[in-house]
């Protein structure tokens, strides 16, 4: 009696689970001795039978609160002995099916299906879990009831309150190994398609569950999804972008692309996705001449639509790479050449006018696709590909690299490295760098070779690059080559970099913005060496410290000290970069004491502030565990950092303090926490930074309010009590902030302080 009370009237979930487990052990103990293979469910007597009958009585009213505990008991019985499991299933399944079909129980269909879904899941989980062995029909507990259960669950897909439990039940049914035939899986897919066509895609929860079920089915039976679901989705994608004011149409294609992203990871489905989306991309980016030449045509909707399509391919590819899908490599032939063709063709045909595929945003997202595919290739296959890449970019021979429906004009030259190349061609260096950064270190680079190529890229980034996309592409390519191929590059590292430093960074003859761009490139080269543990990286860092007194670029150099070890998406294991274990920690241990000492002792305000900037940049770039032991020393410096005029620096400092406060929630930390020692000054500083009249940056205001919100859980009441009234009063003013995100954080912070008591 006591056990059943803890199930039907549990004091907490832990006790409830313990009671259910105890019940299972009891049933196993009672019935294990009498278990035999030919024992039928009718032979069950005693406690199991009595309990089942009592639960069935309760389940006559599925909408009542006692129904859930009753179904939990019956589900627990299914994980006891085979005969008890069969008996339980023979009692509860027909009962719930009859209940659902009873016209008098129409209002209770949703809770009935919810209970049935729990039963199906429990029956599935009671089966052996060996994925290598397909169970025989007699070993599948649900097999005798399959038709009836499948019938009521698919009927439950009729729009209404029963849809969600029906989907839950079908998910459990299709994941029961060996239960449904291929034809029955096709029937389920058909019913889900009907559900989505009935407008349920607008219900986010239902749509997510339906897509999840389709994705599950596609893993074992992709043909049904490919032949019925995908055509429906693709038919809802327009061939032309909806106009700017057609918000509902734009929302529709966003939803469709989101559905395709969820569904198309399976190899066969992804192949269909690529073919269909590339066709759409051609229609959007290379419209008929009459459309393309229309005067005053608004191209932004087309660029947005094309971007969404490319983003869909990126998202699915990323998931496939994470899952280790072997089919990704074949898209070096089926996808990558089509992308190069589209963008090179558009750049050559633009004649200085805007074409959709010359949009830098599209080039940027397409570069991610190229990296994802190239990084999965073997070194041998990469070597073949990189020859075609160099032939196109360095020798104007694009036929090996690009492949598509439109004919590349022979009377126009593709030379993005040329000084007189148009911007739309130079932007395509992003697609070049996307491939370079993903190469194995063993892949030999064709002519001009590594050293001359680095010189060419470095010079191009300074002289010819005219926007951030181009400069970043050059820097990424330089960093990747340098990281993987330092052997044989001593001349570049010792002589060329020295000239670059003198001519582009240190010199006051160059404009400050050009010097900042050169520091950014220098940072990438420094990172390339530090990541691989090359001691020459430390020499490049030392030069950055020399600039701290420069009133034009000192802070940029200071940021670079931390940025040199910040996590990035270029120098990664997936891109086959050479990465030494704990390189960031070793670097931090080397430069942090130097920064702290100089920040304390420097008498030059410019240099002192630069060291504070370097400090905030560094601690933002490395794991908290690296500097946590230094927090007592760092805290006064961080508080000074909150007075610097740079909003991004302030936000970084507050984020650091927030992480420290969040780790101070234990009672021991409250007693000894560094946050408590500076509580008074922290409160006043954060209040100042949360007020729009004092702080125009929304990011800083939100960060300050989050810190104030967590402070009561990190510091003892007796320490914070003197500030409580002031905080509550001042936060009241923030509730009028024009930004909703700020107001939301202010409400939470004020509530936490209002409830704060000793």
From TrEMBL:
Stretches assigned to the MMS19 C-terminal domain: 256-712
A GO CC annotation given for this chain: nucleus
Top-level taxon: Eukaryota
SUPFAM superfamilies assigned to the protein according to its UniProt record, in alphabetical order: ARM repeat
Principal subcellular localisation of the protein: nucleus
Keywords noted in UniProt: DNA damage, DNA repair, Nucleus
Keyword DNA repair part of the UniProt annotation: yes
Subcellular location: Nucleus
InterPro entries: ARM-like (IPR011989), ARM-type_fold (IPR016024), MMS19 (IPR039920), MMS19_C (IPR024687)
Keyword Nucleus: yes
One Pfam family here: MMS19_C
GO biological process, one term: iron-sulfur cluster assembly
Cited function: Key component of the cytosolic iron-sulfur protein assembly (CIA) complex, a multiprotein complex that mediates the incorporation of iron-sulfur cluster into apoproteins specifically involved in DNA metabolism and genomic integrity. In the CIA complex, MMS19 acts as an adapter between early-acting CIA components and a subset of cellular target iron-sulfur proteins.
Record-stated family: Belongs to the MET18/MMS19 family.
Name of the protein this chain belongs to: MMS19 nucleotide excision repair protein
Organism from which the protein derives: Rhodofomes roseus
């Amino acid at each position: 009696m006591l056990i059943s009370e803890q199930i039907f009237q549990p004091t907490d979930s832990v006790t409830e689970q313990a009671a259910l487990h105890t019940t299972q052990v009891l049933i196993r103990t009672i019935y294990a001795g009498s278990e035999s293979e030919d024992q039928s469910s009718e032979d069950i007597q005693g406690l199991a039978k009595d309990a089942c009958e009592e639960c069935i009585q309760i389940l006559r009213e599925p909408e009542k609160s006692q129904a859930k505990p009753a179904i939990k008991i019956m589900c627990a019985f299914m994980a006891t002995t085979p005969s008890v499991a069969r008996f339980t299933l023979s009692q509860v399944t027909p009962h719930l099916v009859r209940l659902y079909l009873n016209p008098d129980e129409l209002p209770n269909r949703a809770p009935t299906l919810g209970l049935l879904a729990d039963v199906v899941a429990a029956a599935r989980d009671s089966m052996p879990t060996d994925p290598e062995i397909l169970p025989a029909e007699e070993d599948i507990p649900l097999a005798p009831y399959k038709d009836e259960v499948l019938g009521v669950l698919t009927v439950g897909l009729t729009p209404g309150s029963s849809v969600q439990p029906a989907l839950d039940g079908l998910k459990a049914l299709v994941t029961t190994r060996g239960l449904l035939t291929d034809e029955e899986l096709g029937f389920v897919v058909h019913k889900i398609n009907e559900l989505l066509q009935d407008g349920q895609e607008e219900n986010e929860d239902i749509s997510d569950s339906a897509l999840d079920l389709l994705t599950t089915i596609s893993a074992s039976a992709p043909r049904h999804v490919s032949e019925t679901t995908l055509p429906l989705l693709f038919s809802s994608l327009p061939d032309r972008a909806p106009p700017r004011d057609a918000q509902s149409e734009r929302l529709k294609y966003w939803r469709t692309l989101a559905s395709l992203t969820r569904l198309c990871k399976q190899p066969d489905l992804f192949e269909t996705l690529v073919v269909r989306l590339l066709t759409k991309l051609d229609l959007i980016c290379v419209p008929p001449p009459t459309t393309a030449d229309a005067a005053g045509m608004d191209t932004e909707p087309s660029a947005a639509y094309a971007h969404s399509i490319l983003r869909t391919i990126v998202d699915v590819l990323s998931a496939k790479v994470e899952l280790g899908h072997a089919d990704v490599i074949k898209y070096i032939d089926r996808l990558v050449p089509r992308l190069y063709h589209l963008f090179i063709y558009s750049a050559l045909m633009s004649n200085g006018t805007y074409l959709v595929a010359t949009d830098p945003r599209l080039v940027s997202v397409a570069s991610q696709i190229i990296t994802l595919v190239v990084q999965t290739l073997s070194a041998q296959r990469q070597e073949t590909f990189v020859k075609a890449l160099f032939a196109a970019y360095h020798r104007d021979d694009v036929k090996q690299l690009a492949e598509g429906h439109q004919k590349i004009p022979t009377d126009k030259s593709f030379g993005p490295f040329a000084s007189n190349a148009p911007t739309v061609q130079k932007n395509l260096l992003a697609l070049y760098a996307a491939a370079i950064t993903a190469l194995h270190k063993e892949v030999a680079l064709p002519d001009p070779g590594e050293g001359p190529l680095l010189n060419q890229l470095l010079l191009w980034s300074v002289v010819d690059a005219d926007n951030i996309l181009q400069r970043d592409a050059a820097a990424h390519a330089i960093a990747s080559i340098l990281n993987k191929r330092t052997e044989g590059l001593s001349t570049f590292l010792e002589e060329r970099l020295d000239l670059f430093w003198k001519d582009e960074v240190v010199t006051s003859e160059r404009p400050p913005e050009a010097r900042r761009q050169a520091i950014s490139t220098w940072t990438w080269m420094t990172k390339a060496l530090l990541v691989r543990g090359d001691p020459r990286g430390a020499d490049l860092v030392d030069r950055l410290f020399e600039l701290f007194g420069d009133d034009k670029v000192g802070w940029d150099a200071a940021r670079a000290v931390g940025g040199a070890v910040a996590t990035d998406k270029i120098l990664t294991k997936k891109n086959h970069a050479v990465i030494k274990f704990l390189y960031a920690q070793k670097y931090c241990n080397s430069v942090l004491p130097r920064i702290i000492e100089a920040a304390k002792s420097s008498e030059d305000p410019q240099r002192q502030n630069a060291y504070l900037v370097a400090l905030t940049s560094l601690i933002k770039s490395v794991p908290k565990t690296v500097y946590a032991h230094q927090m007592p020393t760092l805290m006064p410096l961080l508080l000074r950092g909150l007075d610097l005029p740079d909003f991004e620096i302030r936000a970084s400092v507050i984020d650091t303090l927030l992480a420290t406060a969040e780790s101070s929630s234990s009672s021991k930390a409250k007693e000894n926490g560094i946050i408590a020692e500076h509580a008074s000054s922290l409160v006043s500083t954060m209040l100042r930074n949360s007020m729009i009249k004092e702080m125009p940056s929304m990011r800083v205001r939100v960060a300050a309010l989050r810190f104030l919100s967590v402070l009561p859980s990190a510091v003892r009441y007796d320490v914070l009590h003197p500030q409580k009234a002031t905080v509550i009063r001042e936060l009241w003013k923030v509730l009028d902030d024009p930004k909703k995100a700020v107001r939301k954080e202010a409400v939470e912070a004020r509530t936490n302080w209002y409830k704060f008591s000793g």
